[in-house]
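> Could you send the Multidrug ABC transporter ATP-binding protein prediction when you get a chance?

Sure thing. Input:
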Amino acid sequence: MQPVISVRNLSKVYEGGFQALKDISLDIQRGEIFALLGPNGAGKTTLISIICGIVNPGSGQVLADGFDVVKDFRAARSIIGLVPQELSTDAFESVWNAVSFSRGLYGKPRDDAHIEKVLKALSLWDKRGNRIMELSGGMKRRVLIAKALSHEPKILFLDEPTAGVDVELRRDMWEMVRELRSQGVTIILTTHYIEEAEEMADRIGVINKGELVLVEEKQALMHKLGKKQLTLYLQQPLETIPEALASYPLALSDDGSSLTYTFDVQSEQTGIAEVLRRLNQHGIDFRDLHSSESSLEEIFVNLVHESRKEQA
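Output:
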């Protein structure tokens, strides 16, 4: 299947010599939710801005549904919706007029039924006559999403869509994103909220200092790079881990009441049985145990840390 977005050898150097992107190549499949993660200044917004035709690439090529975003700008832009980070809106316009006008900018014929559907989906229908300046920050962000959806795009970019919004609104947006995906819209999401990617994304890309560190299906990423931990709650606290057990990946809690054993999820042999046997040999008994595995946030932090070490 042809990817809906194809990025090839994309680089960008701004005036002053700052290299925002370094030879990025990436395919995004039709109908998927793709999360792009990275620390501040990693290049996320620059990459999105180039694909959306807001920033010119330095070198390389970007195709959106087969259209070159530079050579076929109008055709490419007509199928893309963008929800930017900034809350800049038409402050004195009504919600209805702002969203309707945005549809017209893309040459789409008037369609009041579609605008009504979008506003209702985003809980903006009761606010349709309000001027945007009268709305709360969360409602203004909903208006940005409505404007991005006004021309029925095939591809929707959400650049930090839930930054600064409350938990309830964030959940509403997640539900809306899933509904759009079910309608065939491809969603590309940048976020600082790792749980957002963990909750919604099909695939995850990690970018750091302008380089694409990794692209992987979410579940495969968590399986491949994740770690599992077994925490043993001890009958009697320990002051230190016995010397004979020093070779095992064991960590003693600050109060000495629990031991945590970390193992690789991909390993055929977890080593748990051996550790339990050795603990028993040393008279270390436990009253309870609990297993857990790495979150996406922990994996992301480790990836960025490793990337920085390699780039240093």
